[in-house]
Specification:
Distance between the termini: 68 Å
Number of helices: 7
Strand order of the largest sheet: 4-5-1-10
Radius of gyration: 24 Å
Helix content: 40-55%
Length: about 260
């Protein structure tokens, strides 16, 4: 090989090496950026299950949970409650590496649950919600989380509540819907966002009625007063059937939702 050819090959090799390094750097930066975005795990839990599944999940419940399932006025509601709480125990226990029946819960002043964690466990925060035949569980690491799922509201009910209690932009969004069905959809989405924000701080629903939550998802709420310090980040969660859902977290960092459906 001539000297000129060797020099050309060397230059080509150096260019390829530089391109490879640049590509690796870009890939690394992309991985770092992806790692910087927190992931909130969200599970949809269908709560109408066969009797054998209900029985199995009921067996995982604590004494207080069993009592609550047993005293439900409607037996189907008791079964749905048992399925939701049993599935929550399975999913949280799997994340913590413990037995579902061994999980213990503590509750905040307004009833927000939290798992009692051993000192060595990662700081898992959880929240769940149920409506009709669907429950929703959200798990986050190191950030307080709130979740809500609701069956679509009746259009007239949604319009009345929005008119009386929502801030002007939120109420206008509901009341300007082109059809009653669209109005019910808009109201229920905004309601889920409110509930999710309230649950982040473990507050009362009345504190969240006036929050300005109209806008595209995901949404950053700079001021969460009177609930507590902001900002909060929230996102709608696509769920099946006539339901709408949302999840919210504290701390001023974006997040992404990893949504899955639990199966018995």
């Amino acid at each position: 090989m001539s000297s000129a050819a060797r020099d050309g090959a060397a230059r080509d090799g150096a260019a390829r090496d530089a391109a490879a390094r640049d590509g690796a750097a870009r890939d690394g930066a992309a991985r770092d950026a992806a790692a910087a975005v927190d992931v909130v795990e969200v599970w949809s839990i269908p709560t109408d299950q066969p009797p054998d599944v209900v029985h199995r999940l009921y067996g995982l419940l604590g004494a207080e949970e069993r009592e609550r399932a047993d005293r439900a006025r409607d037996p189907r509601q008791g079964e749905r409650f048992a399925v939701a709480r049993g599935a929550v125990r399975l999913l949280v226990a799997a994340r913590l590496g413990t037995a579902p029946a061994d999980l213990a819960w503590r509750y905040g002043p307004h009833g927000k649950p939290a798992p009692v964690l051993p000192a060595s466990a990662e700081p898992i925060r959880v929240n769940w919600s149920g409506s009709g035949a669907l429950a929703l569980l959200a798990l986050a690491v190191g950030r307080r989380v709130g979740a809500d799922v609701e069956r679509l509201a009746r259009p007239a009910v949604g319009a009345r509540i929005a008119r009386r209690h929502f801030p002007p932009a939120d109420a206008a969004l509901v009341l300007a819907a082109p059809t009653p069905a669209d109005g019910a959809d808009r109201f229920t989405r905004l309601w889920c966002r409110r509930e999710a924000c309230v649950k982040v701080h473990g507050g009362r629903l009345a504190q969240g009625l006036g929050l300005p939550l109209a806008g595209p998802s995901p949404l950053r709420l700079a001021d969460a007063a009177p609930l507590g310090p902001g900002p909060l980040w929230l996102a709608d969660v696509p769920v099946p059937g006539p339901y709408r859902a949302a999840v919210a977290v504290d701390a001023d960092r974006p997040f992404t939702v990893r949504h899955r459906t639990w199966s018995a």
